[in-house]
Design a protein that fits this description.
By secondary structure, the protein is α+β, with helices and mostly antiparallel strands. Helices cover about 20% and strands about 45% of the residues. The chain is built from 3 helices and 6 strands, in the order ααββαββββ. Strand 5 and strand 6 form a beta hairpin. The model has no long low-confidence stretch (mean pLDDT about 95).
């Protein structure tokens, strides 16, 4: 059964991230969406690219399945763009900070860039 497609809102994305709801997060993406991740292992010249709703859904399932907390701290939305920060913490105290910028098409995420930094 295919997940129902839902237009993304700042409230919806915050709720889905903080409750670790990968299925709902996947529903916010267009079929052709691309998510790019920039971090220590994926520099700007070679970001990790995840293409398509199914692959992005698998990415979120992995993230949401980890024993960690997620908190969306700041969200800014205007027209067809949204940006938010996400603070995450593992049970051992390690922290991750993410900044995400998305471009929307017809209410769904078409393009996303995630920059993340991890405690080392």
């Amino acid at each position: 059964m295919q997940d129902k497609i839902k237009p993304v809102t700042s409230t919806g994305i915050k709720r889905a991230i903080e409750t670790r709801d990968g299925r709902t997060l996947a529903s916010f993406y267009a079929d052709h969406a691309v998510a790019r991740i920039v971090d220590r292992n994926n520099p700007p010249s070679r970001p990790r690219e995840i293409k398509g709703r199914a692959a992005i859904g698998a990415f979120w399932d992995d993230i949401c399945g980890r024993a960690m907390t997620h908190r969306v701290e700041v969200t800014i939305a205007e027209d067809d763009q949204m940006a938010f920060t996400q603070a995450c913490a593992y049970p051992d105290g390690a922290k991750v900070l993410c900044m995400s910028v998305v471009r929307l098409e017809n209410g769904l995420i078409a393009d996303q860039t995630i920059v993340q930094a991890w405690d080392e």
